[in-house]
Specification:
Elements (H helix, E strand, L loop, with lengths): L1 H17 L6 E5 L2 E4 H11 L11 H20 L6 H16 L5 H15 L1 E11 L8 H17 L1 H8 L5 E9 L6 H8 L10 E3 L2 E12 L3 E9 L10 H13 L4 H8 L3 H4 L8 E2 L6 H9 L10 E3 L2 E11 L4 H14 L3 H15 L2 E3 L3 H8 L20 E5 L2 E4 H10 L11 H23 L1 H4 L1 H30 L1 H10 L5 E2 L2 E9 L2 H12 L4 H8 L8 E8 L14 E2 L3 E3 L2 E11 L2 E2 L6 H23 L2 E3 L1 H15 L1
Antiparallel strand pairs: 1-2, 1-21, 3-4, 3-6, 5-6, 7-8, 7-10, 9-10, 11-12, 12-13, 14-20, 15-16, 15-19, 17-19, 18-19
């Protein structure tokens, strides 16, 4: 028993010793420490993204990580982090990233689910709006007026009231058609979705004024469709090519019974979908940037149905409807919904909730005399934008403290000075102004303090921000030391090309004319006519009619290994045998054989620059290793391997 306990203690001790601690330093670069935990985090984060198995080797990845840190060190030595452009770009990214962390997750989730439920329906409505400044506090008269209009709409109908009251200035009576979540301000959306069909809402307020909304209909949303398409675009190299004529030729072949998928593979110019039979990823209303395409797709109902040819800004299309369903599952769209909420008036609910949480978290103290003091120094000039702070203004008095940060009377005084234009020609007690503006001032101050200190309060935020900070530095450094250096070194590029000229060449190619048809006999006829010396245009006129498209021709230069050419290879000029490919029959007329040949400098320039950049980077890294001393702690490295290895086995 004692032996068992001793072995257990020994095993636990060994296990504990193998675990990396927050204090473990894996290596130093000129004395600057890089912790083992950082290496493990980055390694695990990138593990699934690494396709090269050699980079999954810990020692190999460590070499890459050391090189990365060497570059960061060099960038800071060159003071690239002090560059104005770098600082501006980094600050912009930080501002964007912060937005993802300045929210109450519980409130956000509730709003996301509410929005998702509403996305399942479209509301058709009409409304009457009486414009009112959003700072106006005397609203009883407008509210009562809308109550009377509501009664009239219920009794007389919306159109009759609309004709009488709409003036397009202070009163708006409008038909809104169908709309869904995020199409209206949140308060309006709430009223519309919470009012039953045929009813008129009670008056409600938005930033535009007071409204009533009549809900005329609710229907399920258009949902999601999956389609395949064939697209034909103009040919920049052949001005005689007519895309409209080509799309109608393809449509004729579809009506003759040829497979949509096969024709998409053969003739669609959308190369990203052609090899898959033209199939596109599913999309919802508003997701496609071509309204004509979306309209045709959603108006189709028969699965497997095919549209007539139609034109968009991208070219000519034919659509086949593959699937049609309701809105996608919540998990598929929740991130898109969250982004919309951040830009929507709903975000104020999230901010208010978060401020309440932060108030409980931070030590916040307000000067109890502050509001009374500011009321005492205001006068009627405030409502005509001519108010100024008095000469004896107590600007250095403490207004508010948030942890160690102090805000003074001058901070709030400047806010009041800048906000006067919002209250022009209004009449309200000074206390109302102070209460509203102080509330906004305090909320903004608390959120600003949280934002400023987020890097010290949130580990995930700090890690992401640190990665971007170094990544942006490295981009600027690589641009300076490698990319621009290679692109501008014309002499060096020429020398590199001369030395490695045999690495840049054209594979064997062929200049061909390809005839394609659904029936073998038609292509045999084409082959016979080609042997007689007839042109593609003459053959098309002879075989194709208004009602039947028997053959289509494609010409150009292709690699000899192109899979659309005969599998037994192109060995000579002349006519190939008739063969089958992509569910159709083909015959190829080879006009010329273009054998393997070296590329000129201009033809290979892009690849030459890339290869030359790799050479410059390798030489540069050697110099960095000479400039900076890297010391790796072998014991800590062993602990890292012991911790990582079980995770990847």
């Amino acid at each position: 028993m004692k032996l068992y306990i001793s072995l257990l203690v020994l095993w636990l001790s060994a296990f504990a010793n193998a675990q990396v601690t927050p204090e473990d330093i894996l290596f130093t670069v000129d004395g600057d420490p890089i912790k083992a935990e950082e290496f493990i985090r980055v390694y695990n984060k990138n593990l699934d993204l690494v396709k090269d198995e050699s980079q999954k080797d810990i020692d190999g990845y460590l070499d890459l990580f050391v090189n990365y840190q060497l570059k960061v060190k060099e960038a800071k030595r060159l003071e690239l982090d002090q560059d104005a452009t770098y600082i501006r770009e980094f600050s912009s990214y930080r501002d964007q990233l912060v937005k993802n962390y300045l929210s109450d997750s519980k409130v956000t989730e509730a709003l996301m689910k509410e929005a998702y439920d509403r996305m399942g329906y479209d509301v058709k409505g009409s409304h009457i709006l009486i414009r009112l400044d959003e700072n106006e506090t005397d609203t009883l008269k407008v509210y009562q007026e809308l109550l009377k209009l509501r009664d009239r709409v219920i009794k007389e109908g919306f159109e009759n009231v609309k004709r009488e009251v709409h003036d397009g200035k202070t009163v708006f009576a409008e038909d809104l058609g169908y709309f869904s979540a995020f199409k209206m301000v949140y308060e309006f959306e709430n009223a519309a979705y919470n009012t039953t069909v045929g009813d008129v809402s009670m008056p409600f307020r938005t930033r535009f004024g007071y409204h009533i909304v009549k809900v005329e209909d609710k229907r399920r949303s258009l949902g999601e469709v999956t389609v395949a398409h064939i697209m034909v675009v103009p040919n920049e190299e052949d001005e005689s090519f007519d895309p409209e004529k080509r799309i109608h030729e393809i449509y004729k072949k579809l009506n003759q019974g040829e497979a949509f998928e096969s024709l998409a593979k053969q003739f669609s110019d959308d190369k990203s979908s052609a090899n898959n039979g033209g199939v596109l990823a599913p999309f919802t209303g508003g997701q496609i940037s071509a309204p004509e395409f979306e309209k045709v797709a959603f108006n189709m109902n028969a699965i497997g149905g095919i549209s007539e040819p139609f034109k968009t800004n991208y070219g000519w299309h034919i659509i086949k409807l593959l699937d049609k369903k309701g809105i996608p599952p919540y998990d598929e769209v929740k991130f898109d919904i969250e982004n919309k909420i951040q830009r929507d008036s709903r975000s104020s609910l999230i901010n208010s909730s978060m401020v309440n949480d932060l108030k409980a978290k931070y030590d916040i103290v307000m000067n109890p005399n502050a509001k009374g003091y500011f009321e005492s120094i205001m006068n009627s000039n405030f409502f005509s934008r001519s108010w100024t702070l008095p000469k004896n203004f107590e600007k250095d008095q403490i207004l508010l403290t948030i942890e160690a940060d102090t805000l003074r009377y001058n901070d709030f005084g400047q806010r009041l000075m800048s906000i006067q234009n919002v209250y022009v020609d209004q009449k309200m007690p000074f206390r109302t102004v102070i209460e509203k503006e102080y509330k906004n001032f305090e909320e903004n101050a608390i959120l600003k303090y949280h934002e400023t200190n987020l890097e010290f309060e949130n580990e995930e935020f700090a890690q992401i921000l640190g990665e971007y900070r170094d990544g942006l530095l490295l981009f600027d450094l690589m641009e300076k030391e490698v990319w621009n250096a290679a692109a501008s070194d014309t002499i060096g590029l020429q020398k590199y090309y001369t030395k490695h000229k045999d690495d840049y060449f054209w594979e064997d190619r062929v200049d061909v004319l390809i005839a394609t048809g659904a029936k073998e006999n038609d292509i045999k006829t084409v082959a016979r006519l080609l042997r007689r010396g007839q042109s593609a245009d003459d053959i098309s006129k002879e075989l194709n009619t208004q009602n039947e498209q028997k053959v289509m021709f494609t010409k150009g230069i292709r690699p000899s290994s192109d899979e659309s050419l005969p599998q037994d290879g192109i060995l000579r000029t002349g006519l190939s045998k008739v063969y089958r490919y992509n569910d159709a029959y083909h015959v190829v007329k080879v006009n010329a054989l273009l054998p393997k040949t070296n590329k000129t400098f201009d033809e290979a320039k892009g690849k030459i620059i890339s290869d030359y950049q790799n050479r410059l980077e390798a030489n540069w890294l050697e110099s960095l290793n000479e400039r900076y001393e890297v010391v790796i702690d072998a014991d800590v490295l062993q602990k890292v391997k012991s911790q990582i290895q079980p995770e990847i086995d």
